Amino acid sequence: DLTFATPRTVFRTPFVDLGLVPEAGSSLLAPRILGQQGAFALLGLGEGFSAERAKAAGLIYEVVEEAALEASVLAAAGQIAAKPPQALKIARDLMRGSRDDLVARIGEESEHFRERLKSDEARAALTAFMTRKKA
Fold it and tell me: Domain boundaries in the chain?
């Protein structure tokens, strides 16, 4: 429910670079959160972005220094645990809304993802990725 990152965190989705397609509902959720342009930069171009940019876009809750990460996460978990559980569950469910469109999109993405895994493009991209050497 709450995602934390450090200033060194870089978010990136290399689906297309690997000859694949977005999955896990990202093709539905990214445009809703980032707008069409931001979503295409993330999912189509595979452009990386910082933790600060992720926070500004509402993708993560907080950016904290590495030394404070565990304490920040535990403090938030403690606050959540202190809430009335049923009220918290209902509030969470209401914020997330209907999942029907998300479930349908994940199914559609999974079908395309499986097909792409068998493609020559994906085989070549994945082979290149697996055999590259670090400098």
Answer: 4-66+80-131
Residue tagged 């993708």 (tokens): 59
Write down the pTM of the prediction. 0.69
What is the CATH number that goes with domain 4-66+80-131?
A: 3.90.226.10
The residues pairing with 10 across neighbouring beta strands, listed in sequence order, are 50
Q: 5: how many CB neighbours lie within 10 A of its CB?
A: 20
**Residuewise pLDDT in 10s, the chain (135 residues):** 899 999 999 999 989 999 999 998 999 989 988 899 989 999 999 988 899 999 998 889 999 999 999 999 999 999 999 999 999 999 998 888 777 788 888 888 899 999 998 999 999 989 998 888 554
